[in-house]
Amino acid sequence: MRKATLAALLLAATVAGCGPKYSFPSNAVPQSVEAICRNENQLDVTARVAGRTLGALFYVDDILDDKGQIPKEIHEQMGKIMQAVSRVSLSTDMPLDFCVVVIRDRKHLNELIVTRSVDDTKRANSDALGVEESINRTLFGQGKYQLSDTGEKSFVLKEVTLEDFLAEQIAQRIRFGFSKKTSPDEDPSAQQPFVLVDGVFNRGENGTDKKFRFSVLSLKAEEPQETVLIALRTAGDVLKGYRFSNYEEIEILDYLNRQKLVIPRDAMEDYQDKKITEQAVLNKYLSESQTIQEAFKLFGFNLSENATTDTEAAPPIATAAP
């Protein structure tokens, strides 16, 4: 997906929550979303509630046009559906934390997923968040969906947790950060970097060992410690912005440079409050990481047998794993 297409879709999502205020009883929340979409926008959606997450699903024939782009019509439909989901979530007695919109195509089984925090929507509506920050706090995902064994198209909404939302948002911001550094708009000859970023929140056994884990594989030339610092800064800014501290440590893995940063929460908070410097963090918590072969396996690739293990050599060729 091209950068312009992604930006347009996220901009469409920022209209969520705008419009008149209504009251929707908790026993009819999904039906309220479906009625708004049907009566006001002539869109046939299916809505679900999972825990504190409200989501809506909409089918189209094909998500991409002949040029491989998301058509304007789908951008607009996604924005209207998110607006309906947000309106209901903001005016109901049901406790809801997240809004999700899923667009699926019938032809190729592709799906687009947009996720927003209800609190972020409230803050955006009150001008406590600027447009750019509001977009940055919107999660955009894409992938494939599967039909059931009987060929039916089921909609099982997964509840979004704050920890997972923050992990994915930090990973997304890291990816966007690398893209902005080599924007073709600024330098027509610049090539988009090959960057893979994965972010997860591990809860450990019995929910005790709470850890954010970010894995970065970037084939763009960087200073040896720059990739780790980009991830550290991003994680620090996001967690501070949400005032989130319910974790034990943050682990950042830079596979190309074979570096690992494991920083405990107390040290991270000192860094966020500028009580310790980036260099002090690196000096104390940076160590050697796994090999690049392990990195490619983590992200679902197999390396050719002749690939070298020397990190100073040319990057090995990766082939998609079966």
Provide an overview of this structure:
The protein has 322 residues and is an alpha+beta fold. 32% of the residues are buried. It is globular and about 60 Å long. A 5-stranded mixed β-sheet has the order 1-2-3-4-5. A 5-stranded mixed β-sheet has the order 6-7-8-9-10, with helices on both faces. β3 and β4 form a beta hairpin.
Secondary structure elements and pairings:
Blueprint: H1 3-13, H2 29-41, E1 46-50, E2 53-60, H3 72-90, E3 98-105, E4 110-117, H4 118-125, H5 131-136, E5 139-144, H6 162-181, E6 195-202, E7 211-218, H7 226-241, E8 249-254, E9 259-264, H8 265-272, H9 278-285, E10 286-288, H10 292-298, E11 301-303, E12 318-320
Parallel strand pairs: 2-3, 7-8
Antiparallel strand pairs: 1-2, 3-4, 4-5, 6-7, 8-9, 9-10, 11-12
Q: List the total number of helices.
A: 10
Distance between the termini: 23 Å
Rg over CA atoms: 21 Å
- Written as H for each helix and E for each strand, in order along the chain, the element string is HHEEHEEHHEHEEHEEHHEHEE
* Low-confidence blocks of residues: 13-17, 305-322
Shape: globular
Q: What would you call the structural class? A: alpha+beta
Strand content: 15-25%
Sheet of most strands: 5 strands, mixed
Give a quick rundown of the structure.
The protein is α+β, with helices and mostly antiparallel strands. It is 36% helix and 22% strand. It is built from ten helices and twelve strands.
Descriptive labels:
five-stranded mixed β-sheet; 322 residues; disordered C terminus; 12 strands; globular
